[in-house]
Design goal:
- The protein has 14 helices and 21 strands.
- The protein has helices spanning about 30-45, 95-105, 120-125, 165-170, 200-205, 210-215, 245-270, 275-285, 295-300, 320-330, 375-385, 400-410, 410-420, 430-435; strands at about 5, 10-15, 20, 25, 50, 65-70, 75-80, 85-90, 105-110, 140-150, 155-160, 180-185, 185-190, 190-200, 215-220, 230-235, 290-295, 305-315, 340-345, 360-370, 390.
- The chain has an eight-stranded antiparallel sheet with strand order 17-14-16-15-19-20-18-21. It has a five-stranded antiparallel sheet with strand order 7-8-12-10-11. The protein has a three-stranded antiparallel sheet with strand order 1-2-3, with no helix packed on it.
- The radius of gyration is 21 Å and the shape is globular.
């Protein structure tokens, strides 16, 4: 997956191709001091500032017409504290590099999302998560943060130091300052056994609570226009390691999941009427497989086929009803959807604007192949999602605004009050933040 591009014209685009921006200038600071100086200079020039990671957000959360900060040089591990079980890492470090570096040190994050191209600061600031019964999002594993605030000063926060900032800034949407380093909780590397198994839609929805209870990490994909799902259970294992074979891994994860998938989506985009047939054939290609490996090799997978995504979080108890309503809507519509619907969970956490803030959560994500009109599908899905107290993912397509979020998040006012204190002049403002947090 390529990262964002910056053409000669100075145009920045995100990975999904949904957002473009023309900053006045771009800065690649090589140190925290250089970043702080860039923020102070922007203030002198009356410009706003945004840091961009790998551009994996489908929303305009990172877009700016002011100063664009690229953190590519702020990468690598600063410190490993084995006694405390923490690692401090520079904000521009891609998750992929963090995972590999930790594995070499015999360490691992407890849980992670399924994509690892994002930078650690971009992933945490937007609330990136995997699936887990007891273990939560990447941001919930943060033990400390360092950020450059609007006046160019460097602020550190943790449960003990500036705790009110820590409560909000772990998922800060880029609104409170520019994150320069993150301290994560880590643990000795462990093994996970993954079991991937096809299951009917009716079976997985009727057994959902049981499957969730019995597995540390449970998720499934439902293919629209079919009654089929593919389930994945990840549980800790005593071993031995039994990784996916090189040839079968390449065949299933690269050739089928990326190569054939790309071709099938091209056909579907050109001739939408073929999509239900392609979906039925795709689900027949699934078979049960089991493998055991270190966490990042089980949790993450390559995603080379580009798409657009909307994801909402619900009280976990509302998941099955919401999903059944989504399926009924698709079944009676003339929509043609080639991408699977992804279902995951997370335990309640204590971060002000986390999608799992204060409640046990389930997620439903809908996708469309890049270049396919997605508005009709996403609008219909969002109508269902908002009727079930849905909270949209900050980095994925949605149409909600500050008024909606003030009702959806009990601690919304706490976050906006902190923003007023840390960024009174809205140095880190953009159109997206104006919409979701209010002016």
């Amino acid at each position: 997956m390529s990262s964002t591009v910056s053409g000669k014209s100075g145009t920045w685009r995100n990975w999904g191709g949904t957002v473009a921006a023309r900053p006045v200038r771009e800065v690649e600071p090589a140190s925290v001091d250089e970043l702080a100086a860039a923020v102070r200079k922007a203030a002198e020039d009356g410009l706003t500032v945004k840091a961009v990671g790998s551009g994996h957000s489908f929303t305009a959360i990172a877009a700016t017409d002011g100063v664009l900060i690229r953190p590519q040089l702020l990468t690598g591990i600063r410190n490993i504290d084995r006694e405390a079980g923490t690692v401090t890492v520079e904000a521009g470090t891609p998750l992929k590099r963090l995972n590999m570096a930790l594995a070499r040190e015999g360490l691992s994050l407890t849980n992670m999302g399924d994509i690892m191209e994002q930078t650690v600061s971009g992933a945490t600031s937007t609330g990136t998560h995997g699936t887990g019964r007891d273990s939560a999002s990447i941001a919930a594993q943060i033990k400390g943060l360092e950020l450059v605030t609007a006046d160019g000063s460097v602020l550190t926060c943790s449960e003990k130091e500036n705790p009110e900032v820590f409560a909000a800034a772990r998922i800060g949407l880029g609104a409170l300052g520019i994150v320069t380093a993150i301290t994560f909780a880590v643990e000795p590397v462990f093994l996970l056994t993954a079991r991937e198994e096809p299951m009917s839609f009716d079976q997985v929805t009727s057994r959902f609570e049981e499957l969730w209870t019995e597995n540390e990490h449970f998720e499934f994909y439902w293919f629209p226009h079919t009654g089929s799902t593919n389930t994945k259970r990840n549980n800790r294992s005593a071993g031995p390691e039994q990784p996916v074979g090189r040839v079968s891994g390449w065949f299933e994860d690269e050739f089928v999941s990326n190569g054939l998938w790309q071709a099938a989506n091209w056909v579907g985009r050109t001739v939408p009427a073929t999509i239900p047939t392609i979906a039925r054939i795709s689900t027949r290609a699934w078979s049960t497989r089991t493998y055991t490996d270190i966490p990042y090799k089980v949790f993450t997978s390559p995603r080379r086929v580009r798409f657009v995504e909307m994801e909402y979080a619900f009280p976990r108890a509302a998941l099955v009803d919401t999903l059944r309503e989504l399926k009924a809507m698709v079944d009676r519509s003339d929509l043609r959807i080639s991408y699977p619907v992804e279902v995951r969970t997370a335990p309640a956490d204590d971060i002000a604007l986390s999608t799992a803030s204060g409640r046990d959560t389930a997620y439903i994500a809908v996708h469309m192949f890049k270049g396919t009109p997605y508005q009709a599908y996403f609008t219909a899905a969002e109508r269902i999602f908002t009727a079930h107290e849905g909270r949209p993912h900050w980095g994925k397509v949605h149409t909600r605004d500050a008024e909606y979020f003030a009702g959806a998040y009990p601690r919304f006012g706490e976050f906006t009050a902190l923003r007023d204190r840390l960024d009174p002049e809205r140095r880190f403002q953009n159109d997206y933040l104006r919409r979701v947090l209010g002016p």
